[in-house]
Amino acid sequence: MSLFPCFLLPSLTPLVSCSPCFTFCVLRGKLLIGCPPHLRSTAVCHCRFDFCQAPKTKSRPSENLGQVLFGERIEHSPYKIEFKKDVKCAKVCDVKVYNPASKEDEARLHFITQAIQLNYHNYWIIDNMPVTWCYDVEDGAKYCSTGFPVGCFVNDEVHAKDTCAINVRSSFYSSSPYFSVEYNQKVSRLILYASCELSTCGKAPLAIPSRLSSPLRVLYSYSVTFVENNTISWASRWDYILESMPHANIQWFSIINSLIIVLFLSGMVAMILLRTLHKDIARYNQVDDAQEEFGWKLVHGDVFRPPRRGMLLAVCVGSGTQTAIMVLITLFFACLGFLSPANRGALMTCAVVIWVLLGTPAGFVSAHLYKTFGGERWKLNILLTALLCPGVVFADFFLMNVMLRIEGSSAAVPFSTLLAVLALWFCVSLPLTFLGAYVGFKRKPMEQPVRTNQLPRQIPPQTVYTHALLAVVIGGILPFACIFIQLFFILNSIWSHQLYYMFGFLFLVFIILLITCSEATILLCYFQLCSEDYHWWWRSFLTSGFTAMYLLIYAMHYFATHLHLAGVASIFLYFGYTLIMAIIFFLLTGKLCGGGGGHTGMAVCGVCFQMANKDVWVRCR
């Protein structure tokens, strides 16, 4: 049998690749071995283990950009599965003998023992379906995780659970897996379900002693059983994996929790805009012009004064625009089903390609905002927009990749792929950024709603409650409360090798996050103006962007409570990749919600001074 590649559209069934009339179709299982369940970035290549190897004449399976960046490596398997032909304890390769007098044999066996102790898993793919490991959990439910363990390590202090069924201080090696493959005969499609169990082929479990005293013989074999199941359609063959994961009730709880926060903030904003602000404006319009102004009206001549370090703010806003549009488009395609778990690596590939093609909006927003600030060093602005934020992310990723190389991990990105990423950056994204910046500098600057005084007004001493640091710290709490449940599932999908497929919930939470951050910025910006502090540009950006700091704190909590990593390298990798997530999230929330480029923050200031019929009518941009 030959497997034909095809493009899967949502709700459409692909073409038949193997007719049921052919009873001797051979499935070449693609093998992915060595990715640990808790930290994928320390994956070990199949060739590092002393397993049976496939013939070297076969070409390596092709992998897309997303798979390579995520550290997924696919190798051919020596296991041959003939369609609808059961196999019991079939031999894979010659018996491997480990001699205690050989240091090389001892080192290879020690490497396997370490993998068992660290709970490394084999990840196999049959007909684009992951081979799963299913076991019973609480309430009679069954949990199915992708991959099955290399072996089982238990000691006297650990009770049997999940993969372990023997409570003896030793390592047990799974050299004889048993596969149960279900297929649907009616729809002429091969695999609906593929699960694995540890088998001993009627013998005692193969125990690996801590020290060899006699030669150890390891026979690699496998068993396969085909089961006909015509009740499951091809389109729903992933359901058994997804249904065993946390149910949607938790997701709905997350949505309800976020909606309650949005309603609370919406009530606060409505109270300020409809009551407090309305009373202030009515009072300003009633008093005599000769009387002294008070409140937020005092800063009307300084509220749109260019901020300090305006170039850096413009660069962050431009990069945030690029990131925000990329996230929106990627989530849109994911909700339509184009980036499903069956299409491996598609999510990362889509995000990278879209980000590269969005250099023009980044350059335009950054240049136009910098020109509005009155900046003149336009060349430096263009270079920083194109190189600063992407350069920080790439430098972090490069350091992580160097660490992976040092550790000998198969997840290390090849040098050719790094060159391809740099080519996309400098040959596509950089010219598009220059083009957008050229258009942005050619446009007229944004008209200021009010005239700015020549001399800046002195800001009165601020109380503890109106201090900038406290406002920024408080501003990120409520937005983070909207996303922390979804963040838990996302971290599980990245570090615990679990599938994430609820992109509809994620998109809804993203919209709620946008509303929450915007309303929090409106409240804090209003309080800041009332305290006669007109430095709102940076504070509006940082108020929502500080949510990324809470993301880092939660990642530390997740690391301490859910991960069990061994070695400094693994810890360094975890926090290195988490830092990349935090940087991207900082730019995203700062731009979309804080809106240093004239969105939420400028809207608040514009509405306030437009409604106050005092010295001049202003317009909100």
From TrEMBL:
Parts of the chain that traverse the membrane: 252-274, 312-339, 345-370, 382-406, 418-441, 464-489, 501-529, 541-560, 566-588
Alphabetic keyword roster: Membrane, Signal, Transmembrane, Transmembrane helix
Subcellular compartments: Membrane
Domain of life according to the entry: Eukaryota
Record GO cellular component, one term: membrane
UniProt key word Signal: yes
InterPro entries: EMP70 (IPR004240)
Entry membrane topology: Multi-pass membrane protein
First and last residue of the signal peptide: 1-18
Gene Ontology terms: biological process: protein localization to membrane
Family the entry assigns: Belongs to the nonaspanin (TM9SF) (TC 9.A.2) family.
PANTHER family noted in UniProt: TRANSMEMBRANE 9 SUPERFAMILY MEMBER, TRANSMEMBRANE 9 SUPERFAMILY PROTEIN
Protein name: Transmembrane 9 superfamily member
Native source species: Eptatretus burgeri
